[in-house]
Amino acid sequence: xxxxxxxxxxxxxxxxxxxxxxxxxxxxxxxxxxxxxxxxxxxxxxxxxxxxxxxxxxxxxxxxxxxxxxxxxxxxxxxxxxxxxxxxxxxxx
Length: 93
Prior knowledge:
The protein has 93 residues and is an alpha+beta fold.
């Protein structure tokens, strides 16, 4: 199974990092009580970063590494050309 690492921008402008095999399903879950506890005081806006092609193990390690980054480094990651969200949005244009 292919795992993805994602970052969600929340309504309070915070960033949430997680892993999944289906980012659309997981984003929908975060909007309900089935999502992470992090979303009990805030709502998800949209996925702003996506990185695919991981195993469960490498996705977990990458998630942990991203969570340790300061906000400005996360913003740089979101703006990078490696961000698959940017690649998907430019392909749909």
